[in-house]
Design brief:
523 residues, 4 domains, 17 helices, 7% strand
Length: 523
């Protein structure tokens, strides 16, 4: 065995001992202090070997105090050398307190820089320790009953220790024969605390790679994990006074790092003085189960939403390729049903995913599928979004390339005023209709849900208004009653089942009002 391999084995053995046994940590700290003092004495000896010319008469430095250090079973008296001008101090004085503070700070820094634990393995260790606590209670009962050690006790001990070895440095202190037997009642309380700690770690782990769930549940999950690890710490201390469990310590370190990196404040159970009650493990278990159910419900809803969106996109693509196909009616029906289910499931009419699916098809949705209370709301939001996105510098259409329907409608409307009721004004669509239909003005009357009909009467009554367009799909059904105003003032009314494309608008004008707009009808 080479020196490198031997050093690796020794350091790993020392690391495990320090991780598992508090007395080993204390011994190592004492050894470090003693070695530091040896180095300090060596430095002082080197300095005094060639003193300055006027240092011969100076008295040798004296220690400011002494401290008793214990290394294993050996006692070691260590002098404490103070700084220049420092007040003398005895054991446990200001210098010793300062040294202890620096030591605590170094331990804290080392813990912050320590690699994150293997969470799946840490969870397994916690579950194993829950089993070991329960077996430790039964084990003591069996021993009191004089059960045969080889056939009743030893097999269960061996099985648990074998599993602990498979999980690495998992020290089952509650079964260590060299330890004073732990309090049975405390172990009974501690077992479900370890189960809760495993569940809380599992919950926190499930949120690490889930941005949506993490945003909604991270703070609550971290608070429950803080309570779970605190209960294990308190329960362990009741079972064996002064003991710090390795898994609880690792869980606490992981949680402290996560709260720092995720900017989450956990107000309770992050200090030794603010300890959770181990006897409340059932309540904590119920709360962990409740948040798991809510997370699963959220994930199920998200899966359902994803499936509906994919289904809607599929049928929208089919309609985009061939809106006049034989199965177009079935595609429209399925697409509309998917949108309705998404809204009923909590999506808003302004949902971006729904808008991106429907916007390219909005002008083509058959009027038979626009009924109900959902689709009009979605179409209104699409119209509002498109109105806000249209560029003032959008290119104007060329009259020379206009469709025949547009040219025919332009012959009837050239130089005249038209009122359009419905939705939000879309500047580009407004200019396109004015240009291609050669209107003097298109007066766009924006509509809102439950708006009073009286708001539109003055514009309809204007003498120069030659035609009223009603965009029925963006408007409430009550706007259909605007025809009574049109009849009262003798104005043609054209219902627009589609969008604002000049060709579509022109086709509806020719179909519904060409006879009333003919030149001989013009006053």
């Amino acid at each position: 065995m080479g020196p490198t391999e031997a050093f690796a084995i020794l350091t790993e053995t020392l690391r495990r001992a320090v991780a598992e046994r508090p007395e080993a940590r204390e011994a190592l700290r004492a050894l470090a202090a003693w070695l530091n003092e040896l180095l300090a004495e060596s430095d002082r000896a080197a300095s005094s070997a060639s003193p300055p010319h006027d240092a011969a008469a100076s008295p040798p430095p004296s220690p400011r105090g002494i401290a008793q250090l214990k290394l294993g079973d050996a006692q070691q008296t260590v002098p404490i050398w103070g700084l220049e001008g420092a007040a003398p101090s005895g054991p446990g004085g200001a210098l010793a307190e300062r040294a202890a503070h620096e030591e605590r700070r170094a331990v804290a820094v080392a813990r912050e820089r320590a690699p994150e634990p293997d969470l799946p393995r840490l969870i397994q260790r916690c579950r194993l320790k829950a089993e070991a606590c329960r077996w430790a209670v039964k084990r003591q009962q069996r021993l009191r009953e004089d059960a045969d050690f080889q056939t009743v006790i030893r097999p269960s001990d061996a099985a648990l220790f074998d599993r602990a070895r498979e999980l690495g440095a998992c020290y089952l202190w509650m079964l260590d024969p060299e330890q004073t037997p732990a309090d049975e009642r405390a172990l009974e309380e501690l077992a479900p605390c370890f189960d809760n700690l495993a569940d809380a770690l599992e919950l926190a782990q499930s949120l690490l790679n889930s941005d949506t769930d993490a945003d909604a549940f991270r703070e609550e999950a971290y608070a429950l994990l803080a309570e779970a690890q605190s209960a294990v710490r308190a329960g362990t201390n009741r079972a064996i006074t002064g003991w710090v469990d390795q898994e609880q310590d690792a869980a606490f370190g992981w949680l402290r790092r996560r709260t720092f990196e995720d900017h989450v404040y956990v107000p309770r159970y992050m200090k030794v003085a603010d300890a959770a009650e181990p006897a409340e493990s059932l309540s904590l278990s119920e709360r962990l189960g409740e948040i798991r159910r809510r997370i699963e419900s959220s994930r199920a809803a998200r899966r359902g939403r994803r499936e509906l969106l994919n289904k809607a996109r599929y049928h929208a693509r089919k309609l985009g390729r061939d809106p006049a196909a034989d199965e177009a009616d079935a595609d429209w029906r399925t697409l509309v049903r998917c949108v309705e289910e998404l809204i009923e499931g909590g999506a808003k009419p302004s949902d971006r995913d729904i808008r991106e699916i429907l916007a390219p098809l909005a002008d083509d949705i058959p009027e038979t599928f626009v009924g109900g209370s959902v689709i009009p709301l979605v179409l209104r939001e699409i119209d509002r979004y498109l109105a806000s996105r249209e560029s003032e510098a959008a290119p104007q259409p060329d009259r020379a390339t206009a469709a025949p329907e547009v040219r025919q409608a332009a012959e009837l409307l050239r130089g005249r005023h038209v009122a359009l009721i419905g939705g939000d004004c879309r500047p580009h669509a407004k200019r396109a209709m004015e240009r291609q239909l050669e209107l003097a003005e298109l007066r766009w009357l924006e509509s809102r849900p439950h708006q009073t009909l009286a708001d539109f009467e003055p514009d309809i009554a204007r003498p120069e208004c030659a035609l009223v367009l009603l965009a029925i799909r963006w408007s409430s059904h009550s706007f259909g009653e605007v025809r009574s105003f049109c009849a009262r003032y003798g104005k043609p009314l054209v219902r627009l089942p589609g969008g604002y494309n000049p060709t579509q608008v022109a086709a509806q004008i020719l179909a519904q009002a060409s006879d009333r707009l003919a030149p001989e009808q013009v006053a």
